[in-house]
Amino acid sequence: MRIKLRLTQTDHAKLQHHLLPGDGLEAVAVVLCGRRRSDSHHCLTGRSVVPIPYDECKVRTPDRVTWSTQRLIPLLEEASRYDLAILKVHSHPGGYPQFSSIDDESDNDLFNSVFGWTDSAFPHASAVMLPRGRMFGRAILRDGTFQQLDSILVPGNDLHFWIPDRGGSLPSFTQRHAQLFGSGTTRRLREMAVAVVGCSGTGSPVVEQLARLGVGRLVLVDPDRVEEKNLNRIVNATREDAYLKRPKVEAMARAIASMGFATDVEIIPENLATPRAVKAVAECDVVFGCMDGVEGRHLLNRLAAFYVLPYFDVGVRLDADGHGGIDEASGAVFYIRPDGSTLQDRSVYTTEQLKAAGLRRTDPKAYREQVKAGYIRGVDEDRPAVISINTQMASTAVNEFLARLHPYRLDDNSDFATVRTSFIQGVNYRETEESPSGNFFRHIGRGDVRPLLSMPELSEVEVTT
């Protein structure tokens, strides 16, 4: 079982401020975490940080901290009630890059009590923060054994993705990438799992680039099948795919397999609004949204908050007059932090558009009647698409991902919350993040709940035999 930890930029900063106050002494904090419960990719997602005050620590030296666990009790009660995880984080201000024997003894004592209180079958965790905020950690399993965390992700303006040094050589096909991004970033790409939701006009070139960059695992979600009308914009799709009406995700998987890069691929030929798709995306480290629909984008934004995921949204707008004239040709890439502003905050869609899309799905007849009566505006169904524009915006999204994983720009990544391209004007724009409304803040790090994402339509039917 791979075990991952995710913390928001806000929580990581809070931890860093408390754990590394500049006095050279160790400090400690506790984090209550949600879970993506899985036997293959178990994820811990930070919900709330509780710093242990310095005056409640009986000992604070450069290599030891002992503390009162009184503040842990309410967290244990909540963890027991909802099967949440307890994460202990302490600092090594001197930069010691591994757990010490003192840490081993402390974790054995603490988590023996934690398991006794919570009686969970799933792991808890302990982590260490080093100077400048870098972290490493381990899971504590039910039998008391330690297992190194496979990754710690902080999806802020920069994407901090810390993994253990497993040694070994990089595949030869990644060598040219390593010349630019270095072996460290290339190794992180090999350890990453990335979800692409929507595998058509912008999604298929995103998939193509991620596979060739060496991403280790790809999860592809799309319910649609290849048709003749969309062969002109789906990278790697063939006429045979259209004739056989193959699912788009199958066409993508075949192309990835033919590259021979040993990429692990999971295909989900379903709508994102299904329990299977939500769970699979939640187990990834990054998600790309390549959908036109308002509902799907809103759902991905919600999912990113629940599971502390970075989300790159790719959008293209082409308006034609039907006679060869172009009224609008533009695209945008939105980078969404789980603790930042949402797509709705950035006016990508409105509440009215979201309601209209929901009505169209649940009650098509009422939807048509309300559109006809002028109560709501109709949802765009079949818009123009051009592969050259789609591919350019897909490349912009992938480059935004790389620029955050391996910061190389002269300006801070916070200046690139939104990147826009106007093909009519021939210019690019960049925008800083809008002030967040906080609509999803209460959901950050909740992980698995019933129903999933607190949405009744994602309820899972339990069969009793």
Index terms:
single chain; 465 residues; Cytidine Deaminase, domain 2; 12 helices; 2 domains; alpha/beta; globular; Rossmann fold; 8-stranded mixed β-sheet; 9-stranded mixed β-sheet; 19 strands
Structure characterization notes:
By secondary structure, the chain is α/β, with parallel strands linked by helices. The chain has 2 domains: 2-149, 3-Layer(aba) Sandwich (Cytidine Deaminase, domain 2); 172-458, NAD(P)-binding Rossmann-like Domain (Rossmann fold), CATH 3.40.50. Helix content is 32%, strand content 25%. The chain has helices at 9-19, 73-82, 101-118, 175-191, 203-213, 239-244, 248-259, 275-282, 294-307, 351-362, 364-373, 387-405, and strands spanning 2-6, 28-36, 41-51, 57-61, 64-67, 85-91, 124-129, 135-140, 146-148, 151-155, 159-162, 193-197, 217-221, 264-268, 286-289, 311-320, 326-336, 418-422, 427-431. Strands 9-8-7-6-2-3-1-10-11 form a 9-stranded mixed sheet. The protein has an 8-stranded mixed sheet with strand order 14-13-12-15-16-17-18-19, sandwiched between helices. Helix 3 links the parallel strand 6 and strand 7. The longest helix is centred in the C-terminal third of the chain and has 19 residues, at 387-405.
